[in-house]
Amino acid sequence: MRLNISLAAAFVLLASACNAAGNSQSIPLQAGISNPAEASGQAHPNADHTSILKMLTTTAVVGSTVDPTNGDQNPYGLVYVNTKPFGKSVLKKGDLVVCNFNDQENVQGNGTTVEYMPSIPGSSPTRLIQDPSLKGCASLVINSFDEAYSANSGAKDAVGVSSAGKIVQTLKNSGLLVEPWGSVYIPSVTGYPPGDGLWVADASSGKIVRINLGTGGKPTYTPVISGFAVNHGVPGSILGPSGMQYNPKNRTLYIADGVTNTVIAIKNPYDDIFQANSIIVGSNGMTFTGPKAKDASVLFHGQPLDGPISSALLPNGNLVLGNTLNNNGKNLMVEIASDGTLLAYKNVDKGAAGALFGIVATGTSDTTTQIYFNDDNANNIQVLEK
Asked: Which CATH superfamily is domain 7-385 in?
């Protein structure tokens, strides 16, 4: 769970959303909350203003995330296996894969394990892998080959793990991967080179590093976006660029800025964003310079975002983000449409603040969507459903 809490930010949120404190219901958009995307005149003809959070009224516990062998805990990264894996695999379609940030003694950033379990209530974790190169796993992504890539803040690397639980790739760059934090996998559309890309957000430098994976050759590392604010927090209180999602339907990369409470959108990242410092984010998180500045825009800024770190892309294109700061113990999910409209927010844990890490959505439509999330207060995965 998080160690630093912003009292001032909590009072601001309490003033605008006092009704959220006493229940777990979603809250409609409040007057006075800006929509930067709408204000800038951007057109988003495919935006869906149907709120999924309002539709999901039931919470169930899927299962514990504590490693059954060494007791690692505090789940951070979370992904869902969408298809049946090829070849020899311990993973199955419909499984959830989760990594632990803490060790058995609950020391922040010392966890070295990845678990998996069926995505149905009453499941139990099975270890997928344990390795020192996974130390401090902060985020997970999964590609079409069912390889899970972890960004590991303690080990200062990113690691690819097969569906059979074997390390297939270890990515290290001492100059650029200093404190890997957020990550997203952007597949190639037209083939290679440069091949698929693993984009890693670094919480030490505030840079987004594009790692071109290629095939057969050495990966390349390029800090394509820079300037994000970071708080240089110790493990358990880190804020920086994270909560990254890529929507292939509109070819947009979304990045949550946990320090300035901003979500930015980057158009055509695979084709356009490949040079160092292609985009430089201003100190307030809302201005952009660099040769590809035109591709960047502010999707949303301000309350009710409060230290967001995790996110999920819903089937309808909406984003759900997870707050980590709130002095009153709220753990809010915040839903934002692809045009920047705030749709709803929901308190999913009334316990200590900073419990919400790792979110993933499943389904093919508004009515079939489910949202899974890690709850660090309980060391488990829970699901929001109808």
From this structure: YVTN repeat-like/Quinoprotein amine dehydrogenase (2.130.10.10)
Strand order in the sheet with 73-80: 73-80, 95-102, 113-118, 126-130
What is the value of pTM for the model shown?
0.89
| DSSP three-state, residue 368 | helix
Indicate if the alpha-carbon torsion angle 62, 66, 67, 69 is positive or negative. negative
Q: What is the pLDDT along the chain (386 residues), one digit of tens a residue?
A: 554 433 333 333 333 333 333 333 333 333 333 444 444 434 455 899 999 999 999 999 999 999 999 999 999 999 999 999 988 999 999 999 999 999 999 999 999 999 999 999 999 999 999 999 999 999 999 999 999 999 999 999 999 999 999 999 999 999 999 999 999 999 987 666 788 999 999 999 999 999 999 866 789 999 999 999 999 999 989 999 999 999 999 999 999 999 999 999 999 999 999 999 999 999 999 999 999 999 999 999 999 999 999 999 999 999 999 999 997 888 999 999 999 999 999 999 999 999 999 999 999 999 999 999 999 999 999 999 99
CA 186 from chain center: how many Å?
14
Nearest to 169 by CA among 182, 151, 153: 151
Task: For residue 193, say if its preceding peptide bond is cis, omega within 30 degrees of 0.
Answer: yes
Q: How far apart are CA 165 and CA 147, in angstroms?
A: 9
Where in the chain are the domains?
7-385
